[in-house]
């Protein structure tokens, strides 16, 4: 498809940045305690099935999300998912961990991810490809600045009050997100014009080898997030760490996302493209994740340090993945963005079902070996990528 002339809307980018910070903080309050909520609801650590159900439903919605964008427009899809999520959080405040709570938490997971994909559409609409590294780097840096404090706050409330306090605080922040987004995104409501079936989308992306390679790298990153987010809190609790100690560990763990992402995006734009950095980042994340298996009980400092190193790799892969992908598509490629973001539900479905089976026979700490092996499998597609040309390579200042 021939690309149209893109125009950077700096005002909208700044608003997206602010909304992203609020969304990151609000989501981080729940993301690291969801597995514990499911565990309390059913009385077992093997909670992967609930994530699998969530992401199967999300995958079906995502493959058809372009149809809703065609009917409603980009910002209206964002508003709908956020408003529905507010209702779900309110419901979680009213119930104890239970079967009803499980259904509401599954709905929260689904709506939260639809919300992020819809925000992706909005960012691509108001940005330009040549600045993808910087724009996406700033977006992810601000997002993760919000994420940085979320686990600390949620584990504090969980320790002192219980889940009701966590949900009330999350509801307040999501209301702020809804208000600011409602005021700022109303004019970013362009509709998707093409009428494509899922098979048409698959044929379209399968013909683009580099899109499929970066898709696999994205799949591996989301696989890492899936197993680490679900099982690390449970494993640390089994080792005897308090929620307060876990909050401190996770806060330190998330610092690389704030430090490294914008500089990496800027470097990819201006100096060297994404390929070499991706290869190096995959090595860091894969090897450091496997080393976790050998730690044992350890201390807060030791756990914070090793998880910090894993997130250096993850933070770099996250920005370089987005920078590479968005330089190769156009804001009208809503269907391709939909497909690319299926790497998240596909990874969670595969990770949760596979791990639920594996943990019937192996101890939970084997998750770190399994995850590290899957991560290192992304080295080959990273090596095969056709690199994007940087501004330096194109002879620009």
Q: How does this model look, in words?
A:
This protein is 77% helix and 0% strand. It is mainly alpha-helical and 397 residues long. The protein has one domain: Up-down Bundle (Growth Hormone, Chain: A). The mean pLDDT is 82.
Task: Describe this structure in a few short sentences.
By secondary structure, the chain is mostly helical. It has a single domain (10-384), classed as MFS general substrate transporter like domains (Growth Hormone, Chain: A).
Question: Secondary-structure map with pairings?
Answer:
Elements: H1 10-31, H2 34-42, H3 48-63, H4 65-72, H5 74-94, H6 99-126, H7 132-160, H8 163-184, H9 198-206, H10 209-238, H11 243-253, H12 255-259, H13 261-272, H14 275-291, H15 300-326, H16 334-340, H17 343-358, H18 367-376, H19 379-384
Distance between the termini: 29 Å
Find the CATH topology.
Growth Hormone, Chain: A
Total DSSP helices? 19
> Which structural class do you get from the secondary structure elements?
mainly alpha
Q: What is the H level of CATH, i.e. the homologous superfamily?
A: MFS general substrate transporter like domains
- What's the count of strands? 0
**Domain module tally:** 1
The CATH class name reads Mainly Alpha
Query: How does the overall form come out from the CA principal axes?
Result: globular
Gyration radius (Cα, Å) is 20 Å
Order of helices and strands: HHHHHHHHHHHHHHHHHHH
| Architecture (CATH level 2) name | Up-down Bundle
How would you characterize the largest beta sheet? none
Task: Point out poorly predicted stretches.
Answer: none
Specify the oligomeric state: single chain
Q: What is the strand content?
A: under 5%
Name the helicity range.
over 70%
Mean pLDDT: 82
């Amino acid at each position: 498809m021939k690309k149209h002339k893109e125009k950077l809307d700096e005002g909208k980018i700044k608003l997206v940045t602010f909304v992203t910070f609020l969304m990151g903080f609000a989501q981080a309050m729940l993301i690291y305690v969801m597995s514990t909520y499911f565990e309390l609801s059913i009385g077992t650590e093997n909670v992967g099935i609930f994530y699998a159900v969530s992401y199967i439903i999300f995958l079906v919605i995502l493959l058809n999300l372009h149809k809703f964008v065609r009917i409603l427009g980009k910002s209206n899809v964002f508003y709908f998912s956020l408003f529905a999520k507010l209702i779900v959080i309110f419901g979680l405040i009213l119930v104890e961990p239970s079967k009803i709570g499980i259904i509401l938490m599954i709905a929260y997971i689904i709506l939260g991810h639809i919300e992020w994909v819809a925000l992706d559409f909005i960012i691509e609409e108001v940005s330009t490809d040549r600045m993808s590294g910087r724009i996406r780097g700033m977006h992810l840096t601000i997002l993760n600045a919000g994420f940085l404090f979320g686990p600390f706050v949620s584990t504090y409330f969980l320790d002192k009050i219980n889940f009701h306090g966590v949900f009330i605080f999350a509801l307040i922040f999501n209301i702020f997100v809804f208000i600011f987004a409602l005021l700022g995104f109303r004019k970013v409501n362009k509709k998707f014009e093409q009428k494509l079936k899922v098979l048409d989308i698959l044929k379209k992306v399968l013909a683009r080898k580099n899109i499929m390679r970066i898709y696999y790298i994205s799949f591996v990153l989301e696989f890492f997030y899936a197993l680490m987010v679900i099982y690390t809190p449970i494993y640390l609790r089994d080792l005897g760490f308090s929620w307060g100690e876990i909050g401190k560990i996770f806060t330190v763990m998330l610092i690389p996302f704030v430090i490294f992402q914008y500089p990496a995006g800027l470097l990819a734009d201006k100096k060297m493209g994404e390929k070499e950095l991706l290869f190096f980042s995959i090595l860091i994340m894969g090897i450091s994740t496997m080393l976790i298996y050998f730690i044992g009980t350890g201390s807060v400092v030791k756990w914070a340090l090793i998880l910090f190193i894993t997130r250096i790799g993850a933070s770099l892969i996250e920005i370089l993945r987005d920078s590479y992908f968005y330089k190769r598509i156009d804001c009208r490629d809503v269907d391709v963005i939909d497909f690319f973001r299926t790497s998240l539900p596909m990874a969670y479905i595969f990770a949760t079902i596979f791990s639920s089976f594996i943990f019937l026979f192996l101890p939970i700490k084997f998750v770190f070996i399994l995850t590290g092996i899957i991560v290192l499998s992304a080295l080959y597609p990273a090596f095969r990528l056709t690199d994007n040309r940087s501004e330096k390579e194109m002879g620009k200042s």
